[in-house]
């Protein structure tokens, strides 16, 4: 048995990794083969039993690296829902690209921590250059845009409200806004966001205008890619209203932001560069493992609010001597080099390559929507804007259909309540290699399940 205490880095680290990584890959293959469907069958009980069988999970005497890795990797693969299966389509839960996952091995082995230059010399420089490219992509016309890495839309939205708090702003958002916006206001001790009415899933400009007329200095959160339906607020018009009222504008483009990589889809985000700040997630479109969030600002100076001094990490004399000050690039201290795998991926595919994958998902969504429209037993909520398709069986208990598919592991389908008591099924299509044909069987399975008597086992 090999040495379980061997290190991943140093001159020999790669040799031990070369022994262990094949075990991880074998475990992935074995566990995935064990699970015939995108998810484990039987719901929570058998999954819990598979973990309970390992008790004590954390033994007094270790089982060794080989056994622990093989066993737990196979268990993980067998009991996971796998977004690389097209029928795993409930959430903004993407199948990560192999190139990004492979890059993360290097990041994990070297473990640069992004809170000071002396822990991450080249990783921090790569991050800086990568973020500069992202900032230019978001703000092509701005003279000094900037961006930072976050854990996702939740942290990006928190940063947006935090920067706005520097100017005593009342949060305002659409009824379509992500729940993290209200939570960020709560965390920051700001007042509860004022809500703007929506038409369907898009903020109504006149309603925003009316709200801003009544309130003092505000920060408005618009959404580009709503969680329920993937809809995009009329950004340019909202930006114009914000400017008229002197309000700050944050665009939560956690879902839709990477459409900026596509010449064809970019017009959907028209006006986004008028925002003061933008949230984008590369763990949605961007095909990174969680967490891969980005937060862009039109004016780099806005990020000065995050400045903090900790003598051991960014002493004044070190900074004056030319060591980059990284501490003010996040509200975290120790921080993973998540920008590394994002940079490797964007360099491998190019902006156009990423844009093409986004286009494919959106095209597939439109085709799946057409198939729903043609299906005699199904009904479509509306034409998809991005890659979300909302539909439901014409008859039957929609929520029960979703649970039945989940319990058999057949398909992982989402849900969205679009009006009080009105539950729809949701496909959030992020599989870049799936085509509409891959979903036709799923539509039939939903229809069949809706017609099956309660308690019958779905096929
Ligand atoms: C996913 C998402 C969030 C939350 O982001 P996390 O990455 O899960 O923290 C916020 N807003 C929108 C619109 C999203 O799609």
Task: Describe the protein.
By secondary structure, this protein is of the alpha/beta class. The chain folds into three domains: 67 residues, no CATH class; 246 residues, Aspartate Aminotransferase, domain 2, CATH 3.40.640.10; 100 residues, Alpha-Beta Complex (Aspartate Aminotransferase, domain 1). The protein is built from 14 helices and 13 strands. The strands form three sheets. It has a seven-stranded mixed beta sheet with strand order 1-9-8-7-6-2-3, with helices on both faces. Strands 10-11-13-12 form a four-stranded antiparallel beta sheet. A hairpin with a 2-residue loop joins β12 and β13. It is globular and about 60 Å long. It starts with 12 loop residues before the first helix and ends in an 8-residue tail after the last helix. The structure holds pyridoxal-5'-phosphate. Pyridoxal-5'-phosphate (PLP) binds next to α6.
